[in-house]
Amino acid sequence: MPSLLPSRYYPEPHDPHGLDPQPPVRPSGPIGILVVNLGTPDEPSAPAIRRYLAQFLSDPRVIEIPQWIWRIILHGIILRTRPRTLVPRYRGIWLEQGSPLVVYSQAQATGLEKALQMEGADVRVMLAMRYGNPSIEAGIDALRKKGCERILTVPLYPQYAASTTATVVDAVTAYTARLRNQPELRFIKRYQDDPGYIQALVSKLTAFWNVHGKPERLLLSFHGLPQRTILQGDPYHRDCMDTVRAIKAHLPQEDAERVYVSFQSRFGAEKWLQPYTEPTLKAWAQEGIKHIDVMCPGFLADCLETLEEIQEECREAFLHAGGETFRYIPCLNDDAQWVEALSQIVRRHLSGWSEKA
Q: Where is the signal peptide, in residue numbers (predicted)?
């Protein structure tokens, strides 16, 4: 049967402008690892915060109401007023090197690459933010330029939720769907009760207590979600409870009995996961509980929700209600034990891609 394509699509072997009939062997190339966290404004200014919020709050997985209604609220009200009110809050947590979320997430990504390469794995690690910069698109492009034909995406969310982990999968697959030469993709879904992750948390907690003494109660505060999302099948609440159970199982019984759980960052008027963090702290103070610690296991890097909402707003609420000692235990951040645990999680997911996994 004659070809339906012009002969120019089938160049002769000696055609200097044609395709090479014997191309060189293609090297396997390094494995790319895309570490992704939520995101942050580029700087603590109203325009930068507005750009960030516009992208973040336009994601239909984050705000699950009819989009035509939400766009009116978002562009007509929130983006006109909210950025200015957030400027002093972001300025209050900003580090000399930039946003704490980016600084600590980058430390984890850098540490991960070093740990894997020290064991002989041929990997390249790039940090990306789901919203803001560095973008997921830029991260994927950078890995491809380094020769990575295989990319493992590692969301820095131990507990899975559609509004966090799933949005990362959405963004990665949407971008690669536009590529002619797509990389092979893998994703880590969750590691909410991974032994290394749990042990890193418990070690940080016990080290803090060894220096500062133990409180009457320890509150583990997770980011909240609308309760309806759980009723619709989101496993986030169960993942959080898995983390709490694992932490308590690694503590002596008398310390496990100090542990309570709550959910923070409620937004809007509908019912969210309960108990709520700030009302819980106020109620404790009114009951006569004077000395408490708060830890946020779902956040792997400190950010506005931990440094400002918990360390400032919740502290003020607890002390104003009659409490005496409020201590916030920082996130894992650049903790070496956590970086090693993360490298172990990644190694398992590289099985079959890397003989060093």
A: none
Has 291 been labeled as part of a binding site?
no
Residues 231-241: b if buried by 16+ CB within 10 A, e if exposed: eeebbbbebbe
Domain span at residue 244 reads 195-329
Residue 185's pLDDT is: 98
Structure tokens at 105: 């997430």
- 355 domain residue, yes or no: no
Label residue 146 by pLDDT band (50, 70, 90): very high
Evaluate the CA torsion angle 86, 92, 97, 103 in order and state its sign: negative
Tell me, yes or no, whether 318 lies in a domain: yes
Q: Assess whether 322 and 344 both reside in one domain.
A: no
List CB contacts of 220: < 8 A, sequence separation 6 or more: 243, 244, 247, 259, 260, 261, 262, 295, 296, 297
Domain with residue 35: its CATH number is: 3.40.50.1400
- Alpha-carbon span 172 to 15, nearest angstrom: 39
- Whether the model pTM is above 0.85: yes
The answer to whether residue 66 sits within a structural domain is yes
Question: Is 8 within the bounds of a domain?
Answer: no
Q: Is 305 annotated as a binding residue?
A: yes
Mean pLDDT over 155-178 rounds to 98
